[in-house]
Design goal:
This protein is α+β, with helices and mostly antiparallel strands. Helices cover 39% and strands 21% of the residues.
Length: 151
């Protein structure tokens, strides 16, 4: 599961108007659509968030897809004066690549992990990606279960 949220979208809406905010959402939708296949589908999750559901992909492949989408949005250079990350539209992304089985988490729990991963990205300064290291999810150690992905 890949979850994306726009950085400083409220500022863009306030500065440029909601029609421009809708155009930004459409641009991100186009970037996501370019990555769709039998193994990954994207949908708008609500407001400024998109959700990608994966099937049979390893962490590395899902991470590469997320990096390509974020890079496309960076290269599109969509203005957002309210975003201190280059005054353009950027994304904060969370990745949770876990299979739903009877012995594991439900889709709701996995979506909650993806929410937490997005919040890690937003709290880390936005314009970045965090991946849940599922093996460390329930660890009692102080190590963070979310790994920052550079792109």
């Amino acid at each position: 599961m890949v979850k994306k949220g726009f950085d400083h979208i409220k500022g863009a809406n306030d500065t440029y108007g909601h029609a421009k905010g809708d155009e930004i959402i459409k641009e991100v939708a186009r970037a996501c659509r370019k990555e769709e296949s039998e193994q990954i589908r994207f949908a708008r999750y609500g407001g400024d968030e998109f959700l990608g559901l994966t099937c049979g992909l390893e962490d590395g492949a899902v991470t590469e897809i997320a990096c390509r989408i974020c890079s496309r949005i960076r290269k599109a250079d969509i203005p957002n004066r309210k975003n201190p990350n280059g005054h353009r539209v950027t994304l904060s992304v969370g990745i949770v690549n876990v299979a739903v089985t009877k012995k594991s988490d439900t889709i709701i729990q996995i979506a909650n992990y993806a929410d937490k991963a997005v919040y890690y990205s937003k709290n880390a300064g936005k314009d970045c990606i965090h991946l849940l290291d599922y093996g460390r999810k329930n660890s009692k150690s102080k190590n963070d279960p979310f790994v920052k992905i550079e792109f």
